[in-house]
Amino acid sequence: MKKKILTVVGARPQIIKSSAISRAISKYYNKDIEELIIHTGQHYDENMSKVFFDEMMIPLPSFNLNVGSGSHAIQTASMLKGLEEIFIKEKPTAVLVYGDTNSTLAASLAAVKIHIPVIHVEAGLRSFNKYMPEEINRISCDHMSSMLFTPTQKGYDNLIAEGFKSRQKGLASIDKPHVYYCGDIMFDNSIYFSKISENSSSIVSDLNLEINNFILCTIHRDLNTDVKRKMESIFKALLEIVDNTGLKIVLPLHPRTRDRMEYQLSKNLYNKINQSKKIFLIEPVGFLDMIALEKNAKIIVTDSGGVQKESFFFKKPCVILRPETEWVEIVNNGNAVLTDSNYDTIIKSFNLLLSQSDYTYPNFYGDGKASEFICNKIVTYL
Ligand code: UD1
Ligand code: UDP
Q1: What domain count does the chain have?
Q2: What amino acid positions are annotated as catalytic residues?
Q3: What is the pTM of this model?
Q4: How far does the centroid of ligand 1 lie from the alpha carbon of residue 11, in Å?
């Protein structure tokens, strides 16, 4: 009998991730798996949501809860209520969630309480910083899941260290969760969409950028945007880098960052950033444009989980504007440096990364077929 999987997405990176598994289902598993997508509505601007469904060929959501923005409690509570109603009505074989957002937490909690198995894709990652809302979400979700798919060996090791068993016999359940290291579905996506992006994105020439000679930057973590001192330190460092190197910076602005810039940055700094002819503050871009920017940048500066990894996929050095990361491999291997929001460290690390050329790119993230592996295990063990 076909397994009925309800996939819950909400934030931009989850919509992007979902494309990999939806593609694997429609290519190889459409006789075994029926997938329905639920959008919580956590992200709702057209360029944070709809653009990805359109250009990444993701099936349109069957349900949209339209929860919108709010405090953690308000957002999560309103998702919980809406999701439980749909789960009870649809009676799925399992609920599938991605990553570590409030949508991940709400969906796994709503499902596990009414005994619907949870499948967690991108399980096991840890920053070991419990002040991050995402760390709370991912730990909770892992311990509510029946099937856990880790993108890295480190993610797998983290789960074993927390008491998960490496081999379970029989079907997966909340009492006997199955844990697999399968590689990163975002590696699958980056390979798949790289060629499509080459043929369809013109953003590099539209912005008049010189190939391999500009900086791509993204900033959106609450730890950076919601603390005035940190946000100012990052933007001052960006201005200094532009002055020192003459390189242009392209910064697709997350709506949280656009909002906070206006009142967190001093007027003087805000004006300098906005008036700089070398800093391009643009709206969030679609995934095909984003890949084009990543592939053609000289170096990437980011606090995004996804973007730091894509910098590795596309062989670009990366300054990580965070004190720690879940993707430790790229730091340990020297492809990226953690700088937090520290002005001096950002500039020093940026210069260091640019001065080096002997980077290596070991296979940390699988073979580009993680989605097929996940579908196969779902069909076999649920
Ligand atoms: C969320 C996730 C974070 C993830 C990020 C990806 C949580 C706790 N955080 O953070 O892990 O890295 O998504 O981008 O789930 N806003 C808009 N339009 C939108 C969406 C958001 O204007 O379409 C603005 C609102 O002012 C909102 C703010 O952005 O208050 C933050 O949005 P929210 O979804 O709460 O958190 P993110 O910072 O996006
Ligand atoms: N991304 C995008 N357009 C943008 C910025 C990011 O398509 O303007 C993509 C990026 O390539 C990556 C994902 O969004 O695949 C990362 O999402 P985000 O940085 O919002 O969240 P995080 O990964 O930190 O949770």
Answers
A1: 2
A2: 220
A3: 0.98
A4: 7
